[in-house]
Amino acid sequence: MHELSVASAIIDTAARHAGGRRVTAVYVRAGQLRQVVPESLAFYFEHVARDTLCEGARLELELVPARLLCEACEHDWKLDEAVFRCPRCGAREVRVTSGEELEVESIEIEEGACIASA
Amino acid sequence: MHRIRVRVVEDALDANNTIARANRADFDRHGVTVVNLMSAPGSGKTSLLERLLAGGLAGSRVGVLEGDVQGSLDADRLASLHVPVTQLNTDPGFGGECHLDANMVRSALPELPLDEIDLLMIENVGNLVCPAEFRVGEDVRVMVSSVTEGEDKPLKYPLMFRTCDLVLVNKIDLLPHLDVDLDRFLSNLDLVHPDVPRMLVSAKTGEGVDGWRDWLAEIVARPAAVPA
Fold first, then answer.
1. Which residues share a beta bridge with B121?
2. Residue A118: is its pLDDT beyond 50?
3. Scanning every residue of chain A, which has its alpha carbon at the shortest distance from the alpha carbon of B101?
4. With contact defined as beta carbons under 8 Å apart, do B86 and B110 qualify?
5. Are the CB atoms for B192 and A84 separated by under 8 Å?
């Protein structure tokens, strides 16, 4: 269910940047904390893309690991389970430095073939 | 055909967030504080609202926006409490969206009596995943997690538990009948969202609901943030 909403948002974003041209690939960065299931996203992406500029486009998904930084002792670590507390000094003041992205990084489009108005 | 790669670098939810900000500005202009109430299905959002509204809110006028995939069962329940209730069904979407988004709330704005209320409670669709992703223009997010859901939910749904401003732990009247370990739930909550305010409540007995009422009254009294 979640992936359906995310797929729709990705396709809308990609189409908006396509300038009316056919999109052949969409490059997406999804942070680990967004809990996106890649297979599920791919399934919905293909489905939702039908009858849009993204129909038939490839979804290139990069999963970004979650990294945290302790604001007390500056320890930096990769999050393996959902524990938002510094494993070194125990501080609760931690900052997520990566892993919250849900970003359309780039799109690949066919140049010169405008099939719809932007 | 020649293919080119175009850099986009845009949050996929930017469009939603932009509309959410517009909603927020409209709410602020009318002096309405907005709460996005979220939980899994069956956690007791509607029952807690019933308890809350039955006791009034110390001079604040409350309205409710009910989000459901289908039907108006919840809205019908609340309407008997003499508060303005607006129903929003997500059904016309793709098989019924599992959450409210900013645009759906925007479409309901003309039906909301914004000049007659101080606080709008938006009851989101029951779901622990999607609603966390979609801001709708709320000031605060309150989530309900009932003790029957088990101790591990914060660890399984960190996005939802991390994004809320208050956790209502509901159905505490059932604790004597359950094997659930409340302390373990609370320590899991602290692992995922350290020090997030939490209240133990029972929609059934009314225990703890006054505390929630006070919390809301404080939020309503808070001056609106100047929109960025």
1. B35, B64
2. no
3. A5
4. no
5. yes
Q: Taking residues B134-146, report their average pLDDT.
A: 97
From chain B, the residues in CB contact with A110 under 8 A are: 1-3
Write the single-letter amino acid at B38.
Answer: M
Helix, coil or strand: residue A70? strand
ipTM score of complex: 0.84
Closest CA to B68 of B123, B107, B26: B123
Chain A contact probe: residue of B6, B103, B196 with most A CBs at under 10 A: B6
What does the buried/exposed string (b/e) look like for A50-62 if buried means 16 or more CB atoms within 10 Å of the residue's CB? eebbbeebebebe
pTM, two decimal places: 0.90
Place of tokens 């009314």: B206
Q: Which of A5, A64, A111 best probes binding to B when mutated, by most B CB atoms within 10 angstroms?
A: A5
Q: Read off the pLDDT of each residue in A78-103 and give the average, rounded to a whole number.
A: 92
